[in-house]
Every structure is written in structure tokens, then in C-alpha cells.
Design goal:
heterodimer; A: mainly alpha; Helix Hairpins; B: mainly alpha; 3 domains; 28 helices; about 70% helix; globular
Amino acid sequence: MPASVTPLYFFIVSALIFAIGAAGVLIRRNAIVVFMSIEMMLSAVNLTFIAASHYLNSLDGVLMVFFVMTVAAAEAAVGLGIFVLLFRGRKTIRVDEINLLKW
Amino acid sequence: MIDLVWLIPLFPAVGFLFNGLIGKWLDLDKRVVGSVACLALGLSFLFSILIFFSLLKLPPEARAAVPDKVLFDWIVSGDLKTVIGYKVDPLSIVMALVVSGVSFFIHVYSVGYMHDDPGFTRYFAYLNLFVFMMLTLVLANNFLLMFVGWEGVGLCSYLLIGFWFDRDAPANAGKKAFVVNRVGDFGFLLGIFLIFANLGTLGFNEVFAKAPSLDTVTVTLITLMLFVGAAGKSAQIPLYVWLPDAMEGPTPVSSLIHAATMVTSGVYMIARCHLLYSMAPISMAVVAIVGAATALYAASMGLLQFDIKRVLAYSTISQLGYMFLAVGVGAFSAGIFHLMTHAFFKGLLFLGAGSVMHAMSGELDMRRMGGIWRRVPITFVTFLVATLAIAGIPGFSGFFSKDEILWQAFSSTHGHVYLWVVGAVAAGMTAFYMFRLLFVTFLGQCRASEEVRKHIHESPPIMTIPLMVLALLSVIGGYVGIPHILGGRNFFHEFLAPVLGGLPEGTGHTAFSLVRPVFASGGAAVGSGVNMELLLMGVSVAVAIIGISIAFYLYIWKTEVPKRLGERFKTIYTIVFNKYYVDEIYEACFVNSTKKLGTFLWRRFDDGVVDRSVNLVADLMLWLGSVLRRIQTGYVQSYALGIILGAVIIIIFLIR
């Protein structure tokens, strides 16, 4: 890796991806897309961990990434299951139409 | 033996627990319930007698100094140390004897009288509880335990007046008695507080030992407060109104509680505190004046009543007035003497009235009686004995005690000639209304309906035997205190002297001599002593005979005269017949204003302030909720926005 590439580049990229993901979570209506946005946020965090791990000469970040990926996989399985059931019940997976949890 | 004094109140307590808890539960036979109740009282009476005799064996000066029997510490808190302890001295043992003895005979009588009542077990449980409380009251060695007994007898009085609580009149009478007694008890309690605040102790021995250190104002205040309590319990002006209504209870209850024992506890309490009263001449004067006024006032109300139990009730109030007159003029042992003889003859009068009711199918109005003496001979004779005793005919117990009170009212340094006059007039009235009662009830024409007339019968022996025993006591009860002037020996005073001191001596100032030195009572007349006493005795006997003669003239000889007199003096007749409208005045002044205050507090304060402020808080919360719940949109993304904004704010805050 060229020496001119400082960790700051990695952090900026990961911050951008994280922000795009967060915006997607907030504004997209399709639950699948919201879910993908969440995966993007997780990936952004992973990128930060890897970069920091490299520059600090430590394996702690890499270890953390494995955990995050495991959790993301489990979460994807559970989340997709929920969406399938939701679709069966309500014939939609648009999050703005699923607002039962209120007064 | 004297150490076993705690057994005296224990037996009725056990009887109460047995009948009250087990008797009802097991639905025991009436014979078992009655026997247990009577046995408890019999044992109590037996132990009172045994302790009385072991007290007699002691030399007179040691009798008042018997150490208290302390069972255990009761309340120990800060400066206050109270024990459950019993005091044995001549005064308390005389009271214990009277209470347990009279109670025993009335219990026996009740077995017959209440035989067909469905509340038989409950009745005897209450009655035993009453005797337990009464014995606690008279045997207590401190003010607080006495107060427990004092409240306890009030409770039992309430329970027994309202014994037939399914009818309105007894239930209301019970409430009235309880409420009026609360007024008196409040005074008593204030008196106890004052004693504790000033002397730091409540034990009788300690209080009376430290009493001389009190100043006159304090001791006057204490004694007046105690007298308020006594006036409530013993039905004196102005708190007497509950006693006539208390006649709604079963007749043996009227006899036991509202004639012989409970109502006399005020007299006992003042006699017990005689040291305090002796230090407060003004209180003594108040006691004497209230007593004399009550004696006259209540007697006047008794003149015109037609309900036999009401006549006896007013008579009781009047006789209690005599007792207060006695203790008020410093003749404490004379007051206790009259208390004892009164317990005998008034208890008997009520039991006799109960026996008459039994014979007359529950009739109480003497206008529908008459001429029944042949059919109920034992009741008639015993009633006659009691009437002679209360009228003060020489030879019967009432003569000795009443005459002594009148003589003391005249001659004591605390006494006054007017007190004597009032007492003598009341004695004449007593003789009149008692013989009016006797004549109208037992003699003359029978005015009962055919139906009732057929059923007139003498009561069973279980009721007549107590009548005969009490009749015997009504005769001989007076012979323990024959005045010296008649060549007797006043055993009763000699026995009580270690506690109550001798008869009052002519020393010191009194309220009367301070106020009106000219009329400084009969104190001056003591000089002419012997003849004066005999003269006054003659006068009081003459007054009694005049009263009886008038009764004879009006109700046997010229029976149409009373009606004419009633029409001639219609205004006075109406006022007295309606008991001076005191109940109505109290109703208007105190009862209604209290009700109005209650309604005001209910409507304005409770509904308007308390409830409204509570509701206001609740309404505020409801409104707040209705606004704030809009935040809960149900959209997952708005929650996510919240989370992200929150995280951003925290991060901004952290990295700054």
C-alpha cells in the first residue's frame, strides 16, 4: 500500500458509506432496501476496523470484524424471516404501511 | 391471699373468651353458657370475699398500705412507665365486692330473663366482658389502666344498650350513649395528660405522694377535667341525656350497668382521687353543686314519666347526684356508702321492673298495669322493700346512706345549708315518684288488656331468688354504717378511713366560706351538733313521709286529681313531661350544628378541595398523555431517526 495513503482516506470513505447507509435506513420505504442499507452501515464499520487494525499493527480490529460479520449474517437470516412472515400477513413490506406499534 | 387479687378480674375475662369465642362456635347449650358465665362471676365474688377477709385481718393502718400487685410492665416509653397492676385497699375491695356480688346475682337473674332470646350466648359474653372491665377499673393501680377499664365499660355499655340492634331505638340509644360518653372521656383523658405532664407518673401511689407539690390552679384544672369524665360516665348535668335512652337495653343490663355499677364509676374515681380534690376547694364546690342540681333536676323529671324503666333511670341520675353531692362536700366514704346501698336497691328495682315486664308480656307503660300485686307477690314485696329503701325510710339501707349525705351536706365545712335544702327536696320527690310508681304499677285497678291479664304470672325461681337476696341486702346493707348519733358504730367509715381519711374536719377554707362567709354553711351549727343532726334526720324522714303521703293521696285515694292538676298547670306539666326539652335543645344546638359542620366539610372541603385536587392531578396526567402519545407514531423509521439523532448528539457532545 503506498505510503501516501493515510488512514484518513479510509475513514472518510467509511464515513461516507455509513452516512449513505443511514440515509437509506431513514428514507427508503422498501424493507429489503432498508435492510441492505443496514448491511452497508455494518460494512462501513468493518472497513474502519480493518484500516485501524492495519495502521495500529493490531489484530483486535480484525477479530472484531469477524464478530460483526457473524452477527450480520445471523441478523440477515432472522430479518428476512420476519419480512417473509410480514408479507404473508399484510401483503406488503413497505415500512410506512407497517405502523401497528402505536397508541 | 391478697396477692391473688388478679384472679378477680381474670375469671370474667375467661368467661368472656369462652362464651364469646367457643360458645358461639360450638353452639353450646344455653345451660352451659349460663353456668359458665355465672360460675366465672361466682368465683370472682368468692375471691373478693376471701381477699376482703384477709384484708380485715390486717391492722387498720396497714390496710391502705398493702403493696400493689404488679403483674408486668405494660408501656415503657421515655418517662412513661405503666404497669398492669392491681391495688388492694379498703376502697377498691369494697368496690370489687359490690361489683362482683351484684353482678353475680344479676347474671343468675339474666339466665332466667334472657332464656328465650336468640342472642343468649352473645349476651353473656358481653356481660362477662363488662364485669371484667369494671373490675379492671376499680382494681387498677394507675390512671391509665383505670382508663382502659373506663373505656371498656363504655364499650360494653354501647354493645348491651344496642343489644337488640335490629331495632332502631336501641341502636340509636347505644350510639347516643357512646357519643355523650366520648365527651366525658375526653375530659378524663385531658385530666390524665395534665397529671402526667405535671407529675411525670400515672401510678396512684406516686401521684398522690407527689400531689402536694402541685399548685392550686393546676390541681383545680386536673380535678375539673376528671370531673368532666365522671359527669359523662355517671350521667350528671349536662351529660346525663344518654342514661334515660339507655333503658332500651335488656332490663338486667339497665340494672347492672346503668344503675348498680358502671354509672357509679365516676363517684369511685373521685373518691380515689380525693387527695387531689381536697386540694381544690373550687372543684369540690363544682362537684357538690352539680351533684345537688342533678339530684333535684332528675328527680323532677322522674315525677311525671309513665315508663317504669324511665322513672327508674331518672331516679338513678338523681341518686348519682346525691353521691356527687357527698363527695363534693368531702364526705367521700358517705358517697361510697350510698354507692353501695344504691347498687343493692336500685339493682333490685330494675330487676323487679324486669320481673313485672316478664309478667306483663313486655309492657313498660305503667298506665296499662295496676292491681297485679296478688299475682306477682315476690316481685311486689321485694319491689316494696327497695322502694322503702330508696325513699329513705328508717330501718332500710337507703335511710342510713342518704341521711348521712344530707347531714354532711349541711355540716361539712365544704357543705352549705342550701345544698342540704336541695338534697332534702329531692329526697321528698324521690319518695313521691317511687311510691307513685309502686302504687300505679301494683295497686289499684288492673288496666291491662284481657290478653295480657290472662298471662300475668310470677317469674321462675331463678329470677325471684336474686330479687330476694338483693332485697335482703337492701335492708341489712345499711347496718354496716349506722350513725354514731343513733348509738351505732359506723363500721363502713372505719373500714374506709385508712384510704379516705376520717369524716371531714372543720379546718381550712372552702369555696363557700370564701365566697360567702356569712352563710359559712352548717359548720357553725356543728357546735349544737347532736341535736341538730337528730333534727335534720327527723326532717328528712318527714319529707320522705310527706312525699309518700302525696303519692298515696294522688294515686290511691283520689285518682282523678292528677289529671285535673295536669290540666290546671298545663304549661309546667308539658315542659316537665317532655323532660324540659333538653334533648330537643341539644339536638338543635350540638347535634345539628355538628351535622352541619360535617356536611360542610364533606361537601366543601372533602368534595371541593381534597377530591377536586386529586381529580385535577389525574386530569392533568390524562391531558399530558394525550399530547405526548403522538410521539409514538408506529413508523419504524421515525424511531430510527430518533436513535440516530440521539447518537449524533452524544457523539458531538463527546468529541467536543
